[in-house]
């Protein structure tokens, strides 16, 4: 049974996950406190405010995770905490808390890469077998990863500028929609015409598997400026057009990745594309991914939103797999603001 702690950005999170006798994984608790209100007035996450909010919340969140799981620290076998990548102030709070508990209770400590937490979440939610392909689309990352095995990841593509969630958030900001932008852009897009504005599909057709979203963001700005002042209908149409462009761009990249995946593992009985990151909640993106998977004979595994966005359960689960593999870390493991998987 592993306690997991996540504090790399603007969520203070803790969870308890255990291995069941049948070999599955069970989430006993998964407590997430969002700081979104604290940062709302600033239009983005302020690192100093984030670190202070983590300090204030972390003890209570860890306690809540234990209470919800109906366990005490005496039942915990190992402690896992995110040590990177992310905002260093927040990382220090979670890492020190995890290390303190491990030191006080004489438990093994597992220093987790946040991206590994996302990468393994399809195994936590659906027991997906290695190897599989993962699309990670969040506010900070847009990547296509080959998840070969535990501790064996290959980055096939990543963004050369903005992350996809960032593009959603910046589009929302430009159109004066509240943050986080993704869900609000999706809401507005529901009543809009996705064909009204012609927006680019960056990197479409490119043989590499990378993403680029800054050109799309700029195109949205130019359209908004050309049509100012925007009516509600204009905003809805622009959101719909942006979302369609984003979904088609992601679909194009994933189509190529799936081809490469099938070529790399020709005999694989159950090829899987997993989705992680907050943008995985977007229905238009999910629909586009489903279409690509069906065409490629692959299975789409999109974990529930609570496991797609930042959470402690994915960190506890990554810790569980590392613990079982004997990949224990020292208590002086450093935090790392940058740490590619
Ligand atoms: O994974 P996450 O919770 O946090 C990290 O960035 O690590 O992802 C948050 C991102 C934000 O950019 C948010 O706008 C986006 O995911 N997002 C969405 C939706 N829900 C969240 N983007 C598009 N459509 C959504 N429904
Ligand atoms: Zn994340």
TrEMBL record:
Its EC number is 2.3.1.234. GO terms for biological process: tRNA threonylcarbamoyladenosine modification. It comes from Jiella pacifica. One of its GO terms (molecular function) is iron ion binding. The gene is tsaD. Gene3D superfamilies: 3.30.420.40. Required for the formation of a threonylcarbamoyl group on adenosine at position 37 (t(6)A37) in tRNAs that read codons beginning with adenine. Is involved in the transfer of the threonylcarbamoyl moiety of threonylcarbamoyl-AMP (TC-AMP) to the N6 group of A37, together with TsaE and TsaB. TsaD likely plays a direct catalytic role in this reaction. InterPro entries: ATPase_NBD, Gcp-like_dom, KAE1/TsaD, TsaD. It holds the Pfam family TsaD. It catalyses: L-threonylcarbamoyladenylate + adenosine(37) in tRNA = N(6)-L-threonylcarbamoyladenosine(37) in tRNA + AMP + H(+). Residues 26-317 form the Gcp-like domain. It is an enzyme of class 2 (transferase). Binds 1 Fe(2+) ion per subunit. Fe cation binds at residues 114, 118, 310. Belongs to the KAE1 / TsaD family. Its cofactor is Fe(2+). Keywords: Acyltransferase, Cytoplasm, Iron, Metal-binding, Transferase, tRNA processing. Signal peptide: none annotated. One of its GO terms (cellular component) is cytoplasm. Its main location: cytoplasm. It is found in: Cytoplasm. This is tRNA N6-adenosine threonylcarbamoyltransferase. Substrate binds at residues 136-140, 169, 182, 186, 282.
């Amino acid at each position: 049974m592993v306690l997991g702690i996540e504090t790399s950005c603007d969520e203070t999170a803790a969870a308890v996950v255990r291995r069941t006798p049948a070999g599955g994984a069970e989430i006993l608790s998964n407590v997430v406190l969002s700081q979104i209100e604290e940062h709302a007035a600033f239009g983005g996450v302020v690192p100093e405010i984030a670190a202070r909010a983590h300090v204030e919340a972390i003890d209570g969140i860890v306690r809540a995770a234990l209470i919800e799981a109906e366990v005490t620290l005496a039942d915990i076998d190992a402690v896992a905490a995110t040590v990177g990548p992310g905002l260093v102030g927040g990382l220090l709070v979670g890492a020190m808390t995890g290390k303190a508990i491990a030191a006080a209770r004489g438990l093994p400590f597992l220093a987790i890469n946040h991206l590994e937490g996302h990468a393994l979440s399809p195994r936590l939610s659906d027991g997906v077998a290695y190897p599989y392909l993962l699309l990670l689309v969040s506010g900070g990352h847009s990547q296509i990863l080959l998840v070969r095995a535990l501790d064996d990841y290959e980055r096939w593509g990543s963004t050369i500028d903005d992350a996809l969630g960032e593009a959603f958030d910046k589009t929302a900001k430009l159109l004066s929609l509240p943050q986080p932008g993704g869900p609000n852009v999706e809401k507005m897009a529901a009543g809009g015409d996705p064909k009204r504005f012609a927006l680019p599909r960056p990197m479409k057709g490119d043989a590499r598997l990378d993403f680029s979203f800054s050109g799309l963001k700029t195109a949205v700005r130019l359209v908004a400026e050309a049509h100012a002042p925007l009516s509600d209908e204009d905003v809805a149409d622009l959101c719909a057009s942006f979302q369609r462009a984003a979904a088609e761009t992601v679909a194009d990249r994933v189509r190529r990745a799936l081809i490469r995946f099938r070529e790399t593992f020709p005999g694989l009985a159950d090829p899987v594309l997993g989705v992680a990151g907050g943008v995985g909640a977007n229905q238009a993106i999910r629909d586009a991914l489903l279409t690509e998977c069906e065409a490629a004979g692959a299975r789409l595994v999109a974990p529930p939103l609570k496991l797609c966005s930042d959470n402690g359960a994915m960190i506890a689960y990554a810790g569980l797999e590392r613990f079982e593999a004997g990949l224990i870390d020292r208590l002086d493991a450093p935090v790392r603001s940058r740490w590619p998987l």
